[in-house]
Specification:
By secondary structure, this protein is of the alpha+beta class. The chain has eleven helices and 13 strands. The chain is globular. The structure holds zinc ion (ZN). It comes from Hohenbuehelia grisea.
């Protein structure tokens, strides 16, 4: 698939004005394109703040630190200052009003691994247009700050990029991972969807199909054309490789997008009539760069020759988690002092 964003890189289009050559050195490689949906970037943030960002997105940029999460924010109080030093060293004009601050948390407490709980991002406000253009174009920055190694994505709120991951499939142990078995599984998925009334129904209403005069069969065909399977062999807690079904998102609208995912995930897939595919939501997620297309151990960023960022962390392996947590009166686990209003 030529338009598969998982194979694309940042630095698309004409290069914007570049930083002053005497700036703090950073890695200038063309990195893999980051696919972090806005809803995830804004997750865990004070709703008033995310509303302000959504209503004026071009004023802000998300700064997403590698290893981001509550633990990162707690243990790196100087991160915003260090990033600002880098940005100021670029010497763009009119940086006087620029501000970088960690996203204020909502008070709902944490979900999932507290080490990587959202919010992940810092919010950059009022960067001048040239700097803004350069940040979004380069996308990923790794550099050495006074406090050590640092890395972040700079992501625009004005363009939504959706990852193509639809679901993960855990094959029976012993299933081969060659092209032949993969295409057998993919054929099963496509055929099942082809006959599924709910899928046929939603396929008729996809963004592209609405504007085309096609038969129902042609529309269903179009909606499955981009589906493919990718093998992930290094997912930390699984010995057997995981298959990920990927396909072009068919809806820009969040609600329809999730309905589309739900229909595909909840179908029953039988390979050769007897082997049932164990389907999960996309469980792969990189705790380092927050991509859902690969596991932490597969993260491509630290393998770049000139990478200056910190080492990836894997979170749940940390034995001290229970020690850090305290019990609030309601008996709920409360991980960090300033999140809890229980
Ligand atoms: Zn990654």
């Amino acid at each position: 698939m030529s338009d598969d964003p998982h194979n694309a890189t940042a630095q698309q289009g004409e290069a914007p004005p570049q930083p002053n050559q005497k700036c703090i050195p950073y890695t200038t490689a063309a990195f893999p394109l980051a696919l972090n949906p806005t809803t995830e970037l804004l997750g865990g943030i004070d709703p008033a703040v995310s509303t302000a960002i959504r209503s004026n997105p071009s004023r802000f940029i998300a700064i997403l630190p590698f290893n981001g999460g509550r633990s990162f924010t707690e243990s790196n109080p100087n991160f915003a200052t260090e990033v600002l030093s880098l940005l100021n060293s670029f010497q763009y004009e009119n940086c006087g009003d620029m501000q970088l601050t960690r996203a204020p948390w909502d008070n709902k407490g944490t979900v999932g691994d507290p080490e990587f709980a959202k919010p992940w991002i810092y919010i950059l406000r009022d960067a001048p247009p040239d700097l803004r253009a350069m940040l979004v174009w380069q996308q990923t920055f790794s550099f050495r700050s006074k406090k050590g190694a640092a890395a972040f994505h700079a992501l625009s709120f004005t363009q939504e990029r959706r990852p193509w991951g639809i679901m993960d499939i855990e094959p029976e142990p012993g299933v081969k991972h060659d092209d032949n078995s993969r295409s057998k599984v993919l054929r099963t998925i496509v055929r099942t969807l082809w006959h599924l009334p709910a899928f046929r129904n939603i396929a008729k209403n996809t963004q592209e199909n609405l504007s085309l005069r096609l038969s129902e069969d042609e529309k269903v065909l179009l909606a499955t054309a981009s589906l493919r399977l990718v093998t992930h062999s290094r997912y930390a807690s699984h010995r057997t490789p995981i298959l990920q079904l990927r396909g072009k998102p068919m809806f820009l609208n969040d609600k329809m997008h999730h309905k589309w995912l739900r229909i595909i995930r909840s179908a029953r897939y039988l390979v050769e009539d007897i082997i049932r595919l164990e389907v999960k939501e996309v469980i792969l997620a990189c705790t380092y760069c927050k991509d859902r297309g690969h596991a932490t151990a597969e993260c491509p960023f630290p393998d770049f020759p000139d990478w200056r960022g910190p080492k990836p962390r894997t979170g749940t392996l940390r034995k001290g988690a229970a020690v850090l947590g305290t019990r609030s009166d309601s008996g709920q686990r409360r991980w960090w002092g300033d999140t809890g209003h229980h």
